[in-house]
Write a structure and sequence with these properties.
With 95 residues, this protein is of the alpha+beta class. It has two domains: 49 residues, no CATH class; 39 residues, no CATH class. The chain contains three helices and five strands.
Length: 95
């Protein structure tokens, strides 16, 4: 059971080839958009829009939580190709 993180191209090809089970994907387009919105809010003297929180051992800290998707052979095309994150031509053997 081989896993990965960040859906790098080599890992995605391994998933398609059956050499890797899954990868954890956080869409960098969403992460960048969230970071820009937080920076703009801070520049305006406002608090960034937090949708959740996490406890750092001392207090609950407001957090901007981005979606995390498990990508495997059953959804690799829908999540990474159909969304425009990668091009189908980046890979061989896509279903």
């Amino acid at each position: 059971f081989v896993t990965g993180q960040d859906a790098e191209k080599a890992s995605v090809q391994y998933i398609i080839d059956g050499k890797q089970s899954m990868t954890v994907f956080k869409d960098v387009r969403t992460l960048v958009n969230d970071a820009i919105n937080a920076a703009v809010a801070l520049l305006k003297g406002e608090a960034p829009a937090a949708q959740g929180s996490y406890n750092n051992g001392a207090i609950d800290v407001p957090a901007i939580q981005s979606p995390v998707v498990t990508v495997d052979a059953t959804n690799v095309k829908a999540v990474l190709i159909d969304s425009g994150y990668y091009s189908a031509s980046d890979f061989t053997g896509l279903p």
